[in-house]
Amino acid sequence: MGKRIAKEVSIAIADAVKLAKAEVIAAYPITPQTHIVEHLSELVANGELDAEYITVESEHSAMSAAIGAVATGARTFTSTAAQGLALMHEMLFIASAMRLPVVMVVANRALSAPISIWNDHSDIMANRDIGWIQVWAENGQEAVDLTIQAFRIAEDKNVMFPIIVNIDGFVLSHVIEPIILPDQEEVDAFLPAFKPKYKLDPRKPITMGPVGVPEIYFEAKKAQDEAFRNTPKVIKRVWKDWAKRFGREYNAVETYRMEDAEVALLIMGSLAETAMTAVDKMRDEGKKVGLVRIRLWRPFPVQEFRRAVSKVPVLAVIDRAMPPGAVNGPVATEVKAALYNAGRKPRVVNFIAGLGGRDVTVEDFEEMAERAAFYRKKRPKELYETIGVRES
Amino acid sequence: MIEVRLHGRGGQGGVTSAELIAISAINQGKYAQAFPSFGPERRGAPVMAFVRISDKRIRTREKVYNPDIVVVLDPSLPTIVNVTDGLKEDGWVILNSAKDEKTLREILGGFKGKLAVVDATKIAIEELGLPITNTTMLGAFLKATGLVDQKYLEEALEHRFGRLADKNKAAMARAIKETKIYA
């Protein structure tokens, strides 16, 4: 069993990549991802991790190099944030459509302008449809666990899709907290070597990524989406195995104190832990409040989600990205689409909170729950509401 | 749960102090969290770092608004930053200063609460040859609050500073001796 240690979450993630024995790391440093790739480059330079560390001139190149590396059958890792993820955008679709299982940690950060290095989810929300599996970590332990699991999930022959582990920039990436790093033998037993069926090899040449003429493009995209929608079977199997080996459970949708809840908060990422504190406080005061978190954001777990919220009258969905001109934030939009044709469903109220590093406090979560409770008897506004914005 | 806010200037090692407190608490079997005031590091500018220590799992990730303990690494900060902002009524202010109690309480706006003072800059210059007070102030923190064992802080210093650990341990030990408590 691994030992409980005090570690900065970014450093622990790099150590997890080392435990997974990544063979290629192609990355460009950007705040707040920097400590992850800095530590990885140290591990490679010190000979502690036998990998090729490719320093590149941009994130577009980082993703291009990662795509090339994984196509040769090398276990490949990268990490980025905000503008870096935006610059990768073009290449992200290539990795998923070509079924190349790159593992990436995104230290979620606001997109400029105004220039912000601080945490929100606008970077990843602009990348919802890239065809990558996307999961969320709420604390350092989950960041480590999900990073190790990501390699096994992505590289499974029934998956073969790239995967993003989202960790909140600064709020999670720069925190020191207790973390259990698994032992090398435990990870070796959990994670088999990457053996893709097809790979780029000069001794056995194949073509990858040829043109998709109108006669085949649509079929290729349909096949891609079907394969993508099948990935949760493997994801759940991997999580079950992880729980058996390490005693820590992971689910596509996680709930907290949802029994008899009259109002539920829904948030993704590490602020869900602050929300838990708020839920505990409100429960102590006799208020029936619960919490739902979507761990598996892509592919979206419609059935599990519907089950989780079928009995609650009001659901307050907290988005951490602005939806310019849209009815709701991206998470609320998704949630409403998932519920529209459901039998029993809650009323949905959408809050936008915590943009560009604005703190979301326990008190803010209490306020959102209170405001949401008000909509048990009244139809919510269709447009989002904001929390923590100075109006004058 | 105990919440600590550290005030320093960029480059003085306030974040390292926060980290070392959290690491020691975790190694002692407690739960702890340390994080900086997120932002670009600017040498010389006032910066903050935060620590939470608890016997139970810590879930909240909001900033520290109502600290139980405030630690100030730089003697010039109390005159330009309201270091007692949000401090709990029975909270500690732990200062690096060569000034006397009366003057300091005046600078803190008539602060009547628990005060611990050490001339950490002097100790750091004598022990380390540098006015970097982060490890010295750990001694004052330890003397005033007793929240972590010296043994675990020393281990954390050894792990962090390697061959420079002994000097830092000496600075911390002197601060434990020389910190004046006004409580």
Automatic annotation (TrEMBL), chain A:
The keyword Oxidoreductase applies. The keyword Oxidoreductase applies. GO terms for biological process: carboxylic acid metabolic process; response to oxidative stress. InterPro entries: PFOR_II, Pyruvate:ferred/Flavod_OxRd, Pyrv_Fd/Flavodoxin_OxRdtase_N, THDP-binding, Transketo_C/PFOR_II. CDD domains: TPP_PYR_PFOR_IOR-alpha_like. SUPFAM superfamilies: Thiamin diphosphate-binding fold (THDP-binding) (SSF52518), TK C-terminal domain-like (SSF52922). GO terms for molecular function: oxidoreductase activity, acting on the aldehyde or oxo group of donors. It comes from the Bacteria. Pfam families: PFOR_II, POR_N. Keywords: Oxidoreductase, Pyruvate. Residues 16-238 form the Pyruvate flavodoxin/ferredoxin oxidoreductase pyrimidine binding domain. Residues 261-365 form the Pyruvate:ferredoxin oxidoreductase core domain. This is Pyruvate ferredoxin oxidoreductase. It comes from Thermodesulfatator autotrophicus. The lineage of its organism: Bacteria, Pseudomonadati, Thermodesulfobacteriota, Thermodesulfobacteria, Thermodesulfobacteriales. The gene is porA.
Automatic annotation (TrEMBL), chain B:
Keywords: Oxidoreductase, Pyruvate. NCBIfam families: PorC_KorC, PRK08534.1. The keyword Oxidoreductase applies. Residues 10-176 form the Pyruvate/ketoisovalerate oxidoreductase catalytic domain. GO terms for molecular function: oxidoreductase activity, acting on the aldehyde or oxo group of donors, iron-sulfur protein as acceptor. This is Pyruvate synthase. The keyword ATP-binding does not apply. Gene3D superfamilies: Pyruvate-ferredoxin oxidoreductase, PFOR, domain III (3.40.920.10).
